[in-house]
């Protein structure tokens, strides 16, 4: 299977911090509560040992180290994530959250830490359709989604007829629930970002596949309560982690090496 990233990265030296790190703010061990759903591998999920892991956890750990933050985590379902952050119940939200203007009215975003394309995830034995047009023209094909997500709005307004109550859309509380329904045959397709979609296919190539062309791009960011003073330090840390190759190293770990391990 073609790897997501063509170039392997050299290991970063642990002996010294990159020069850019010297310019980052020192938050002096400030305590920060971060919310995650833990249902979106390989970005964040619960592994076989019961530990919360993933690309976002590793990125957050790197940010915390650079800024000197003491981080604790809180598990929240997707539909509670943005309201909880907006209300200041947690300091940061991470859940593969697409940066969108309509969400900026409720929360502040960091700069993007990842760009991903939206893809169609189907069962490996699906033969009725092989792209978005084919799905639309297969009237008995159903799609699973979470209300209020980017994937939901793409399905409603870009694929179907603009009716949010369209009978072809089945709503689920979590993405994991929709994935379970897909594998069980209750629904026939889910939309997901390419990072997570390829992660699922790499883990279960006999059960899942991606069909058709990408349906657009998403930029992911951390979210904060409006006016949070954490935004600027996080942006500085994200820029440093991009510059020194740390984020690309996480891509290697979670999207390339994970393929071999599965």
List keywords for this structure.
262 residues; alpha/beta; 8 helices; 14 strands; 33% helix
Account of the 3D structure:
This protein is 33% helix and 22% strand. It is built from 8 helices and 14 strands. Strands 8, 9, 10, 11, 12 and 13 form a 6-stranded mixed sheet that branches. Helix 1 crosses helix 7, helix 1 packs antiparallel against helix 8 and helix 6 runs parallel beside helix 8. It is globular, with a radius of gyration of 19 Å. The relative contact order is 0.22. The N terminus is likely disordered.
Q: Describe the biggest sheet?
A: 6 strands, mixed
Q: What's the number of extended β-strand segments?
A: 14
Helical content stands at: 25-40%
Radius of gyration: 19 Å
User: What percent strand?
Assistant: 15-25%
Q: What number is the mean pLDDT? A: 88
Q: Roughly how many Å apart are the termini?
A: 13 Å
Shape: globular
Q: Ranges with pLDDT <50 over ≥5 residues? A: 1-20
- The number of distinct helices, counting runs of at least 4 residues, comes to 8
Computed structural class: alpha/beta
The H/E string reads EEEEHEHEEEHEHEHEHEEEHH
Write the layout of secondary structure elements.
Elements: E1 30-36, E2 39-40, E3 44-46, E4 52-53, H1 55-67, E5 69-75, H2 78-86, E6 92-93, E7 107-109, E8 114-123, H3 132-136, E9 143-145, H4 150-159, E10 169-171, H5 175-184, E11 189-193, H6 194-203, E12 208-211, E13 217-220, E14 223-225, H7 231-243, H8 246-261
Parallel strand pairs: 1-5, 1-6, 9-10, 9-11
Antiparallel strand pairs: 2-3, 3-4, 7-14, 8-11, 8-12, 8-13
Helix pairs in contact: 1-7, 1-8, 6-8
């Amino acid at each position: 299977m073609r790897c997501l990233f063509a170039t392997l990265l050299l290991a970063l030296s642990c002996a010294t911090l990159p020069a850019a790190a010297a310019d980052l703010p020192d938050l002096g061990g400030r305590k920060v509560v971060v919310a995650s759903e833990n249902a979106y591998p390989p970005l964040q999920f619960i592994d076989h040992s019961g530990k919360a892991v993933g690309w976002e956890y590793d990125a957050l750990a790197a940010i915390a180290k650079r800024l000197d933050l003491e981080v604790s985590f809180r598990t929240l379902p997707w539909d509670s994530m943005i309201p909880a952050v907006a209300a200041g119940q947690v300091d940061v939200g991470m859940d593969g959250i697409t940066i969108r203007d309509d969400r900026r009215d409720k929360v502040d975003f960091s700069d993007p830490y990842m760009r991903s394309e939206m893809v169609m995830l189907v069962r490996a034995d699906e033969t009725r359709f092989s792209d978005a047009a084919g799905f639309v023209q297969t009237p008995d094909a159903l799609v699973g989604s979470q209300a209020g997500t980017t994937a939901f709005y793409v399905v409603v307004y870009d694929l179907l007829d603009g009716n949010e109550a369209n009978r072809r859309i089945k709503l689920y509380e979590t993405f994991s629930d929709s994935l379970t329904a897909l594998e069980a045959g209750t629904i026939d397709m889910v939309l997901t970002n390419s990072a997570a979609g390829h992660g699922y296919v790499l883990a279960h190539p006999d059960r899942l596949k991606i069909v058709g062309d990408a349906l657009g791009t998403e930029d992911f960011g951390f979210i904060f309560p409006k006016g949070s003073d954490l935004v600027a330090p996080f942006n500085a840390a994200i820029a440093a982690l991009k510059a020194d190759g740390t984020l690309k190293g996480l891509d290697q770990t979670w999207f390339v090496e994970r393929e071999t391990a599965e």
